[in-house]
Amino acid sequence: MFKKVISYTMIIIITLSLIGCSGKKEEIETQNGKLNVVVSFYAMEEFVKEIGKDKVNVYTIIPEGVEPHDFEPKAKDLRKLENADMLVLNGAGMEHWSKDVIKAVKNEKLKVIDTSQGVNLINISEENGDSSHIGSENTHENLGVDPHLWLGLTTAKIQSENIKNALVELDNANSKYYEENYVAFANELDNLYKDYKVKFDSIANKNFVTGHATFAYLCRDFNLNQISIEGVFAEGEPSPKKMKELTDLCKEKNIKTIFMESLVSPQVSETLAKEVDGKTATIYTLHSKEDNLSYLESMKSNLDIIYNSLK
């Protein structure tokens, strides 16, 4: 999927030349006393806004509706970073472009936050079924770990704490404000976790089917097992042989709900649902804002629909 080393280096060089020649910078608001925070994608935006609230201006690099695994930053994104105080990344290999971009940006004050720091990362391997993936072979360059941390409640809490700590370090005068906002958000995450831990512990069925294997951290939180059509990085459709294996597995485990995601083609999910005499349902991956729901609302919806499919 990522055959972009030479081409992307050229893009960086051209971009820097354009910035240098223009002599202009595209400004984020800087006259209102707020921290200028650039984030990679929507889930990071939500975490920053929950903690920073009206003390931050947030610019999100990856646009709404764009699959982040193949995204490349544009010249305007680099210009935003020229004036930013902080760049917030998910980390764990999610932003494959980050090292090149950070090197290219001329901004000595830029604080880069890898929110995966302190997380017990899940390895991608045949031993753990590539997050129970049954489909095409995974060809992503960064096969080491699953980067979908934000979809686990306990890992999202760690990511949010990393963001809080960075905001406190940059703007210590408002440290109490950030601490209080973090505690409030963390409590909501904890309460959601406690509510659904009881529910999932009460049922024997732990298997659900997703479009691609994004829910390993949620599964670890609640001792669930995702069976995915595509792998961790949404690499492509399964072969007919793998599709048959998936169909047989769904029938064996009596799985009748096949989950679909907005940024992944629904065709295979719909075909699988038809094969097992089941139905499809939408699940949120939070790469983008969906149905105008907040992070907490989206996660509650995910947990509720998974739980109801397992009963």
Please characterize this protein's 3D structure.
By secondary structure, the protein is α/β, with parallel strands linked by helices. The protein has two domains: 5-21 and 29-115 and 140-188, 3-Layer(aba) Sandwich (Rossmann fold); 197-310, Rossmann fold, CATH 3.40.50.1980. Helix content is 44%, strand content 12%. The strands form three sheets. A four-stranded parallel sheet has the order 2-1-3-4, with helices on one face. Helix 2 (42-52) packs across helix 6, helix 6 (153-170) runs antiparallel to helix 7 (175-201) and helix 7 (175-201) runs parallel beside helix 11. The longest helix is centred in the middle third of the chain and has 27 residues, at 175-201. Residues 1-10, 12-31 and 126-142 have low confidence and may be disordered.
Shape: globular
**Backbone structural class:** alpha/beta
Give the biggest sheet: 4 strands, parallel
Query: For this entry, what is the oligomeric state of its chains?
Result: single chain
Cα-based radius of gyration, to the nearest Å: 20 Å
How many individual β-strands? 8
Helical content band: 40-55%
Main sheet strand line-up: 2-1-3-4
End-to-end gap: 38 Å
Q: Low-confidence parts, pLDDT < 50 over ≥5 residues?
A: 1-10, 12-31, 126-142
Secondary-structure element string: HEHEHEHEHHHEHEHEHEH
CATH topology of the largest domain: Rossmann fold
Organism: Clostridium senegalense
Keywords: Signal, Transport
Family: Belongs to the bacterial solute-binding protein 9 family.
Pfam families: ZnuA
